[in-house]
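User: Thanks for the earlier help. One more: Transglycosylase SLT domain-containing protein. Can you show the sequence and predicted structure together?

Assistant: Of course, both are below.
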Amino acid sequence: MTLLHRLAPLAIAALLTACATTTLPPAPTAEPAALPAPTPAVDTAPATEAAAPVALRAMGADLLEDSLRPGEKVDLDAPDANADLWARVRKGFQLQDLDDDWVRKAEAWYSARPDYVERMTTRGSRYLFHIVDEVEKRGMPTELALLPFIESAFVTHAVSSAKATGMWQFMPATGRDFDLKQNIFRDDRRDVLASTRAALDYLGRLHKMFGDWHLALAAYNWGQGNVQKAIVRNQRLGRPTDYASLKLPDETRYYVPKLQAVKNIVLAPDRFALSLPPVANHPYFLSVKIERDLDVALAAELAGLTLETFQQFNPQMNKPVILAAATPQVLLPYEQASAFAENLARHPGPLATWTAWVVPKTMSPAEAARRTGMAEAALRELNRIPPKMLVKAGSTLLVPRAEHVRDDVSERLADTASLNLAPDAPPLRRISVKAGKSDTVAGIAARYKVKAEQVAQWNNVGRSARFKPGQAVVVYTAFKPTTVAKASASTRSSTKAKASARAAKAPAARTLAKERGGKGRNVVASAAP
């Protein structure tokens, strides 16, 4: 019997989110059609002469070595490998149980959704062995291996309304604190290995800080500073400082009970009329090293997987290329790993058709497209450049890789690449104008070269409206008013003389003043909102 028959099948087409605040972004699209190759100056690392190594070595009919565990052989026929991983999880439970209305509420929610629980646990079965292994290495409670069930339902691309991302739901700043790179090429918050390492590092730090796993979990959800403040508040009031006694927002109050409910389901699924997919006690995926940049689509093809399936194990890539300097390995289901390594070693053509180009000066996307041999629309789409924006000098763009380019993207660029944009027009300023006797929406629009619909919208009036004399009219324009400082008493006479001279030299300004309806027409500018 094969590994895929022993383990729960992939439920890729039925990915759901953990809660209403979590959304799934669109799956990355396949790379664009081949385009003329550019000859940009690329920040690269020298290519090695050796071909990409086969990281998995055949060690018998069913024995492979995982690069995550050098020297350790994986034998699918070993008794331990076919044991029930859920039993191993149950054996490692250490947290003090909660038993309150919040737990009952969570149990009822899951019990009423057996299909959801089945999809969630089937997804989780891909990653559980690795997570349980990492938890046990650190001597942590195995309840922590269940945390992605309530964080993301094990959806590796999950994004919350607060921009927390990945299976472990890291916020951008917290992810950076734990060395999860986030740039135009990749987001390590979605990386299965990196995010698991970071999450357990973070939980370990929080447990050391609070000395209690329930408080550590509350801090993981709400933030350590907030939990510390809640503890100090209770200390001042002479109250207990345990999880159940703190004043917490409802989301955090419900957080640990949800984990308790999942724990209770794992302990006794029959009690809740639920079932858990069988999970064998050996790696579901293996890590295969790569030494050259590699197109995502080609990697999936070499592994014999669909693009969507490949991305379930390697969800961190933001672009259609894997940069070996920053992502030196790919994860693959056990049975595809060996075939991938062999096919990669034998592949005769180029491995990457994309590379990075550092923009030498601020330029329009049209100019960047010309320089790199791309269609402007393709360049914009691939690099996510909005309309009416310039690409600033020093930005990195993904562009087609010329046939003569032998070097891969350097580690420095792969780790620090960014895209910086600037408006392709002067910034607009908010102008407040006092209307004259005959000023209309259309007249103001024509005077400041903007659309009448915009003037009407800015002032909450109809397109054909007429303004009252002296009424303040708002306009957003590139016009930059002259700043006039108050003159001192000793310079007022000379200032008047200079003003007369300026008026004689500025007939256009006098004409504009006349059009505005006489004296007292003040124009006041402020920064755009």
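User: Great, one quick takeaway?

Assistant: The longest strand covers residues 429-434.
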